[in-house]
Amino acid sequence: MSNGFELPTPGGPSTWTPIDGGVDLRDLQYLTLGMLAFSAAVFPGLRHTVLSYGLTLPTDPQRVHKAADGWSALGEGVYTAGRTAQQQHDTVPQDNWQAPERDLYGEHIGAYAVASDTAADSARDLSTILRWVANIQTVGQYLHFAQAAILSAITMRSLLMGPGGHMYGQLQAYSAGRSIEHGTQRLKDLLVTAGAGLGLATAGAIAAEITLTDGLKPSDGTARHAAAT
Amino acid sequence: MAGDEVPRIHHSTSIRGLGDALTDERDGTSPVSHLDAAGRLPEGMRIGMFAMGVLGAPFAFQHDNIVGYAEQMVRSTVSGLYEHREGLHLVTRNNEIAEAGNEEHVQRI
C-alpha cells in the first residue's frame, strides 16, 4: 500500500500512484542539496536557499505513508473489536439472562463500543492527515529538485560557456553588491523565520495532541473505564 | 419465579460463553483477537524525529508519542476485556452457588 504518491480516499486505501512507485526520495534530496550548494558556490546570493532547503531535510514520505497504513489498520481493528463485543452481547437471548447484571454489562459494552468508534475515528483522521502530509512532501521534493536542476544548469552553462543569458544576469545582480552586513541580516531573517516555523510546528503538535488523540490516549480514561467492569 | 419484582433468569452456559467469546483466540474473530491484530503495528509505525524534516520535527515527535498512546490504549482495552470475562464468570459462579444453596434449602424444608 505504501506506493508513494497516494491521495486519501474516504473508505479505503488508494492504489493510485501516478508519480512514483515507492521510490526512496532521499537520494533525490541529497542530489538537490548538492546542486543547490554547487550553484551557491558560484552565486553567493543563493546561500540562504541552501540553508532553508536543508531545514526541510531529511523528509521521508515513504515512512509517513507507512505510518498512515498503520493507522488505518489500527482504526479498522479497534472498530471491529468494539462492534464484535457489542454483537456478542446482543446475540445472547433475553431469556437466557435476565438480571440487573445484564443491564450493567450491556451499559459497559455499549460504552466500550462508543469508545472504540471514537478511537477508530481518530486513527482514520490521523491516517488521512499523514497521507496529505506525505503527498505534499513528495510534490515539494520534486519542485525543489526542479528548481535546483534549473539553477545548477544555469550555473554550469555560465561556467562552461562564459557568463551570459537573462537568468545569469538576474542571478549575478542578485548576488553582486551584497555586503557582509547584508548577508548577516539575511541569515538572521532566515533563522528567525525558521525559529518561528519551529514554534508554529510545536504549537501545531500540541494542538494535534489535544484534538487528534480522542479515544487513543489511555489517560482520558474512556477506554479503560468502559472496558473495566 | 413468577411474582418476583426483579426477574432473575440465568443461563450459566451462555453467560460464561459470552465471557469466553470476548477473549477467544482460536479463529481470530473475537474482540481480543481483533485488538491483538490492531495492536501489532507495522515496523515503521514510529516515523522517527526527522521524517518530516528538521522543521517538522515537533510533528514527527508528537506522532510517535501518539503511537505510544495507541499501543497503551490497545493493551489496556485487552486487559479490560479479560476483566469483563472474569466478571461474567464470577456472575455465573455466584449464581450457581446461590442456586445450589436454594436447592439445599428447599430440600431441607
For this entry, give a set of tags.
heterodimer; A: 229 residues; mainly alpha; 7 helices; 72% helix; 1% strand; disordered C terminus; B: 109 residues; 67% helix; 2% strand; rod-shaped; disordered N terminus
Short description:
Chain B: Residues 1-36 are annotated as: Disordered. Chain A is mainly α and 229 residues long.
Low-confidence stretches of chain B: 1-7
Count of separate DSSP helical elements of chain B: 3
Label the structural class of chain B. mainly alpha
What is the domain total for the residues of chain B? 1
Measured distance between first and last alpha carbons of chain B: 18 Å
Broad shape of chain B: rod-shaped
Write down the overall mean pLDDT of chain B.
75
| Count, helices of chain A | 7
The SS-based structural class of chain A is mainly alpha
Region (Disordered) (chain B): 1-36
Question: What do you see in this structure?
Answer:
The complex is a heterodimer of chains A (229) and B (109). Chain A is mainly alpha-helical and 229 residues long. Chain A has one domain. Helices cover 72% and strands 1% of the residues of chain A. The N terminus and C terminus of chain A are likely disordered. Chain B is mostly helical and 109 residues long. Chain B has one domain. Chain B has 3 helices and 1 strand; from the N terminus they run E-H-H-H. In chain B, helix 1 packs antiparallel against helix 3 and helix 2 packs antiparallel against helix 3. Chain B is rod-shaped. Chain B starts with 8 loop residues before the first strand and ends with a helix. The N terminus of chain B is likely disordered. The chains are: A mainly alpha (229), B mainly alpha (109). The interface between A and B is large, with 68 and 59 residues.
